Structures are given as C-alpha cells and as structure tokens.
Amino acid sequence: MGGTGRSKTAQKTTQKIIVLIQGNPDITRQQLATELGITNSGVKCHLKKMEDKGLLRGVGPDKGGYWEVQKDRGFKLLVDIDSLERETVTHGRVGR
Questions:
Q1: What span, in angstroms and rounded, lies between the C-alpha atoms of 84 and 61?
Q2: What is the DSSP string of 33-83?
C-alpha cells in the first residue's frame, strides 16, 4: 500500500508542474523545484517521466529549450483546460 501514496503524490506533483508551466511559460527548473518544495533533481526526474508518457515534449536544446504541454496526450485529465481561451499548447522555458 505504500506505493499508492507515492503514486498519488507523483500525480499531484505532475499536476502542479503542468499548472506552473501553464501559468508561467518562462519558469525554470529551479523555480519549479522551489515552488514544489522538491530538489532540482526531483523536478528533472518528473519532467523526464512526463516526457516519456507524452504529457510534455521538449523543444530546443537542453539549456535554453522549453517544454510544450501536450494537451491531447492527457492534459485534460490533469488540469481543467475548458476555461482556457486559446487552443495552443502551453510553452515553458524549463531547462531540459
């Protein structure tokens, strides 16, 4: 049963990351770590898992690149985007 708690925590962290990237397209990985109360390495791990699941897509170089939230790949399940006015994906400058 211990794994369930971690799974729910990871899911909440994933949701928070998506919300933070959507709310601040220029947010950095360090800023995400500060906002989430986790390490920079923890954020990097979450971003990698999210990319592997198709929730995010890395664009550009590792330094100076950004993430695109892939709303067609589960974003609707994580965040209510019905209230968003635009149809474009959200970009965030989170050093990959």
A1: 28
A2: HHHHTS-HHHHHHHHHHHHHTTSEEEES-TTT-EEEE-GGGTHHHHS--TT
CA distance 39 to 36: 9
pLDDT tens per residue across span 35-71: 999 999 999 999 999 989 988 887 878 777 788 888 7
Give the start-to-end residue ranges of the domains of the chain: 2-92
Closest residue by Cα to residue 42 from 56, 52, 53, 30 = 30
In this prediction the pTM is 0.67
Distance CA 47, CA 45 (A): 5
Length of the chain as a residue count: 96
Q: Which fold has domain 2-92?
A: Arc Repressor Mutant, subunit A (1.10.10)
